[in-house]
Design goal:
The complex is a heterodimer of chains A (618) and B (201).
Chain A lengths: L3 E2 L14 H5 L4 H30 L9 H36 L7 H20 L36 H29 L12 H33 L13 H34 L6 H14 L15 H29 L8 H22 L3 H7 L3 H31 L5 H27 L16 H27 L34 E2 L11 E2 L12 E2 L5 H17 L4 H24 L5
Antiparallel strand pairs in A: 1-4, 2-3
Chain B lengths: L15 H27 L9 H4 L2 H26 L3 H31 L8 H32 L8 H27 L9
Helix pairs in contact in B: 1-5, 1-6, 3-4, 3-6, 4-5, 5-6
Classes of the chains: A mainly alpha (618), B mainly alpha (201).
């Protein structure tokens, strides 16, 4: 656990510690990044399977593949999983691996807090998904007691009166656990980006991915407390019988909607901004020219973050907030399309006149831009309250946000995976399979979601497990289902690519001939990242003559480098927190519940003290 | 933390823990902001149970508020003492701060049980739910702060809280003052400005 002073190595890179224990106790941002990536991708596949079952159920009118109750659990867990367990942590994988490398740091500011975030995320995700298998433990007559109130969990559908089982309890406690992981990571990355930049790496020389991640972290640390309070109220209502969302006691169910969407809309930008950052790295690299209007792209991202806090009630037009509120939120929603549109023009300006190379990262990045435009435009359409009243709760909205989150975020994340894969693993993913993956996913995604615009406008409601043939949407749904299966095949191609690319040729430090600092060190980077911390003289250090000193970096560190040791206490603290959550699940029986929660609290407190006082130096 | 005094090069020259802690405080503002906003939205909307005018005891809570404000003064003196390497007064002021925090919690415990006795429970009404949740969250923060101060006190007695570790006390102080400031807002909003209409005679 103690500080390891790395002796002056004779060869280039001293070997990193190996073995399972070294991973369990790791505080290396690169390993934590890989753990985040693998875990999040697993949950991405789980959420994808849930989506496939949903699509199979809706493939034909009057289908009986799953029951209404199972369907409720599937769409709730699909949304919750994709938002909290797949897309956010996939972005976090890139935050972890890439940000310290892009700013020229040896690690994040708080390596153990970083490990803690990962373990809380992993255990929180397992906690939430355990609900699929533990029904009998709660006296339910079904195996699955998964959350079934929608990812938005509207009050008072989620009250103990209307949702008596443990389903919503899993959701309420799971969200609080996952929020801890996101908040801890948020504090960590804000501090890392503010404080650990290499000499000369001024804010306006930072790569755009780091910038967009920086904005994202501010959204996380401000938005998550709000949802935390919202679900704490719900938990108190369910566990103790308080009256926050109890209409009979004078409570207002709209309080939930406000608290949820105050978080929920910034959350949309939490999901999209990192992908925008990735695309802003990939497009210049494969156009062989700098990002068009770097400063404007950065300012637009910041503006999106700020205005993103003022649009939440456009999710609530149909509740009747009155003409003033509707007008204000309609205007602010249309306004936020401006910085977003500015970014799109900047990306197109980057491509314009460039020497375009359509390698897989570039394909996904261009796919991102085109699909995000479609999702963005339909978003502006329901910024208008009268239009929204027609579209809300229909598949039109489902089409909109999947163009943004699948066409946008998922494409962007895949662009990042293909782009940084050689940096992370030292091997490039195969181009041919990558292109096949892209085209299958691009076609499958459009087949799935484009027809939903029509089925939605024809009146197909969201969140209903079946529909009658008289609605006239059967063909559209069948096409959507075929598209979803095609998208599933695309994921298999990706997995196959990962498998076969393990035996590829070594990628070298900078296989794409990119401009930013992470490509200045070897692939994969040594445990200490940089043999010496470079001094940065330019925003494109590897493209400009004299962009960094020294260039190239020496292969062998000229002086011993301190690297943080490992620690088991972040994991123990995370386990303690989840045990408290398990105690909460048992709230129907007072003493076992209290005992479990107190045991978890004791473990948490002991672990925090061990953590605080163990010898450890960054 | 045995080498915490080693000055690391950072971009701002500030210690990373301090920046992270300010970020944490920013996040906490949103947490308490949500609680306070909910209290305000639900003010006067209870359909049963005692009202604020009937139950809130401003003189008593003024005393506990004064107590908490004085604890912030003690906190400042504790930091000054640890920075100049004065072990005795470091211990005196840390202990004083923790004690004043504990006294505040005592007032709160008395107030809570008194309200329950008067018929205002956690589940009685919107007022009960919002009041106990808001002040309970604050009380939990004070409780964590008292534990933190006592930990620092023990470290001082162990001889591990010299001037080189002053930042540890400074960060605890940031937390303590923040929790104190939140109470000023809560005291003002909940106790001093009661917009609830007076009960019809």
């Amino acid at each position: 656990m103690a500080t390891t002073a790395m002796p002056h190595p004779e060869t280039a890179a001293p070997a990193a510690p190996t073995g399972l224990w070294s991973w369990v106790t790791t505080t290396d941002h690169k390993r934590i990044g890989i753990l985040y990536g693998v875990t999040a991708f697993f949950f991405f596949l789980v959420g994808g399977l849930e989506a496939l079952v949903i699509r199979l159920q809706l493939g034909a009118p009057g289908n009986t593949l799953v029951s209404a109750e199972a369907y409720n659990q599937l769409f709730t867990m699909h949304g919750t999983t994709m938002v909290f367990l797949a897309l956010m942590p996939l972005s976090a994988a890139f935050f972890n691996f890439i940000i310290p490398l892009q700013i020229g740091a040896r690690d994040v500011a708080f390596p153990r807090l970083n490990a803690f975030s990962y373990w809380v995320f992993l255990l929180g995700g397992l906690f939430m998904n355990a609900s699929f298998f533990v029904g009998p433990l709660f006296g339910a007559d079904t195996l699955s007691v998964a959350p079934n109130g929608g990812w938005f969990g509207y009050a008072n559908l989620t009250s103990s009166q209307y949702s008596p089982g443990p389903n919503i309890d899993f959701w309420v406690i799971g969200l609080q656990i996952l929020g801890i992981a996101s908040l801890a990571a948020g504090f960590n990355f804000i501090t890392t980006i503010i404080n650990l930049r290499a000499p000369g790496m001024s804010l306006m020389r930072m790569p755009v991915f780091t910038w967009m991640s920086f904005v994202t972290q501010f959204l996380i640390v401000t938005a998550f407390p709000v949802i935390t309070i919202g679900v704490v109220f719900l938990m108190f209502d369910r566990f103790f019988g308080t009256t926050f969302y109890n209409v009979a006691a004078g409570g207002d169910v709209l309080l939930w909607q406000h608290l949820f969407w105050l978080f929920g809309h910034p959350e949309v930008y939490i999901l999209i901004l990192p992908a925008m950052g990735i695309v802003s790295e990939v497009l210049p690299t494969f156009s062989r020219k700098p990002l068009f209007g770097y400063a404007v792209v950065v300012y637009s991202g910041v503006l999106i973050g700020v205005v993103g806090w003022g649009v939440w009630a456009h999710h609530m037009f149909s509740v009747g907030l009155g003409p003033i509120a509707d007008s204000v939120f309609s205007a602010s929603t249309m306004l936020i399309a401006v910085p977003t549109g500015v970014k799109i023009f900047n990306w197109i300006g980057t491509l314009w006149g460039g020497r375009l190379e359509f390698r897989p990262p570039m394909l996904f990045a261009v796919g991102f831009v085109s699909l995000f435009i479609i999702g963005g435009i339909s978003g502006v359409m329901h910024a208008s309250p009268p239009a929204d009243l027609q579209q809300t709760d229909t598949y039109f909205v489902v089409a909109h946000f999947h163009y943004v989150l699948f066409g946008g975020t998922v494409s962007g994340l895949f662009a990042g995976m293909y782009y940084w894969w050689p940096k992370v693993f030292g091997r490039t993913l195969r181009d041919g399979l990558g292109k096949l993956h892209f085209w299958l996913m691009f076609v499958g995604m459009n087949l799935t979601f484009f027809p939903m615009h029509f089925s939605g406008l024809l009146g197909m409601p969201r969140r209903i497990y079946t529909y009658g043939p008289e609605l006239g949407v059967a063909t559209y749904n069948l096409v959507s289902t075929i598209g979803a299966l095609l998208t599933g095949v695309a994921m298999l191609v990706f997995l196959w690519n990962v498998l076969v690319s393990r035996r590829g040729a070594a990628a070298g430090p900078n296989p794409w001939n990119a401009a930013t600092l992470e490509w200045a060190t070897s692939s994969p980077p040594p445990v200490y990242n940089f043999s010496v911390i470079p001094t940065v003289k330019d925003g494109l250090p590897l493209w400009r003559e004299g962009g960094m000193e020294p260039s190239p970096l020496p292969a062998v560190p000229p002086a011993p480098i301190h690297v943080p040791g490992g620690s088991i206490w972040p994991l123990c603290t995370a386990v303690g927190i989840v045990v408290i959550g398990v105690g909460g699940l048992m709230h129907q029986s007072l003493w076992p519940s209290l005992g479990t929660a107190l045991a978890g609290a004791a473990l948490t407190v002991v672990s925090i003290y061990q953590w605080a006082f163990e010898p450890f130096e960054v | 933390m045995s080498h915490a005094a080693v000055a690391h090069h950072t971009s701002t020259g500030l210690d990373s823990r301090k920046i992270a802690f300010w970020t944490f405080i920013g996040s906490e503002c949103l947490l308490f902001g949500s609680l306070i906003a909910t209290y305000l939205v639900y003010q006067g909307r209870s359909v049963s149970g005692p009202t604020t005018h009937e139950i809130l005891n401003i003189p008593l809570t003024s005393i506990s508020t004064f107590d908490l404000l004085m604890s912030s003064l003690a906190m400042v003196l504790a930091l000054a003492a640890v920075q100049r390497g004065d072990r005795t007064w470091t211990r005196v002021w840390l202990a004083t701060t923790a004690l004043l925090g504990a006294v505040f919690l005592g007032f709160q415990a008395y107030e809570f049980q008194h309200f329950v006795h008067e018929g205002l429970g956690f589940t009685t009404s919107l007022f009960g739910s919002t009041f106990f949740t808001l002040t309970g969250f604050h009380g939990a923060h004070v409780f964590v702060g008292v534990l933190w101060l006592l930990t620092l006190l023990v470290r001082s007695f162990q001889g591990k809280l010299g001037p080189a570790k002053a930042l540890n006390v400074e960060i605890a102080g940031l937390y303590w003052h923040f929790v104190d400031v939140v109470w000023i807002v809560i005291f003002t909003v909940v106790y001093l400005i009661q917009t609830t209409p007076l009960p019809a005679a």
